[in-house]
């Protein structure tokens, strides 16, 4: 579900502020009923008209992007740094990232203009798995790996249980590759979990977003999701 004024603005009829005024003026109808509440939310199935004219909704699109490091997970940046949407100038739809990856983290990021699905994917109740590969130093002990799996107490509370596996280690360099799968989406969560155990993350990559992997993609590349992948995302986030 998305706010009505956002749907109107995205259709290109008016700015967000102007769309709010159209609603307050009683010029917007949803499924034939005039709506004057700014908090009203609509779904993709609702028929929205402005002054009696149906708005043209953008076709819904879905992309899996291999975000490079040094790129902002945002639509725009006030410091004019490169953002993920800069890689999609060929896409006519106004897409946005689902969630965020840190500036210095690479990996799988979903971009879409489907606000309803994006909100469901980011809602913690659906426990959507994200799998990361972290290069850390020093090499974590078995006890530290166990603590990561059971949960780490951070300043914003205890983390949920995770799946953790030591993939490789280099005793000379005192580094290790650790795979971690979490379903929460706290800010810089993986880095903070390692840091709490005095482990420094040298490099971090999100290898998988749910069942979607980066196979066949290089940093800066993307692909459209296949219809069955979109259906699976919708099914996996469907309210019971």
CA-based shape: elongated
* Global Rg: 21 Å
The number of E-state strands comes to 17
What is the helix/strand order?
EHHEEEEEEEEHEHEEEEHEEEH
The CATH topology of the largest domain corresponds to Alpha-Beta Plaits
CATH uppermost class of the largest domain: Alpha Beta
CATH architectural grouping of the largest domain: 2-Layer Sandwich
The CATH H-level superfamily of the largest domain is Pseudouridine synthase I, catalytic domain, N-terminal subdomain
Which percent range fits the helix content? Answer: 10-25%
Enzyme class: isomerase
Family: Belongs to the pseudouridine synthase RsuA family.
Pfam family, one: PseudoU_synth_2
GO molecular function: RNA binding; rRNA pseudouridine synthase activity
Write up what this structure looks like.
The protein is of the alpha+beta class. The chain folds into three domains: 2-54, RNA-binding S4 domain (Structural Genomics Hypothetical 15.5 Kd Protein In mrcA-pckA Intergenic Region, Chain A, Roll); 62-125 and 212-236, Alpha-Beta Plaits; 129-209, Alpha-L RNA-binding motif (Alpha-Beta Plaits, 2-Layer Sandwich), CATH 3.30.70.1560. It has six helices and 17 strands. It has helices at 4-10, 16-24, 115-122, 142-150, 189-196, 227-236; strands at residues 2-3, 28-30, 33-34, 41-42, 48-50, 53-54, 62-67, 96-97, 106-112, 130-137, 153-154, 157-158, 163-170, 175-182, 200-209, 212-213, 222-224. Strands 7, 8, 9, 10, 13, 14, 15, 16 and 17 form a nine-stranded mixed beta sheet that branches. Strands 3-2-5-6 form a four-stranded antiparallel beta sheet. The protein has a two-stranded antiparallel ribbon with strand order 1-4. The radius of gyration is 21 Å and the shape is elongated. The model has no long low-confidence stretch (mean pLDDT 92). One of its GO terms (molecular function) is RNA binding. This is Pseudouridine synthase. It comes from Sporolactobacillus laevolacticus DSM 442.
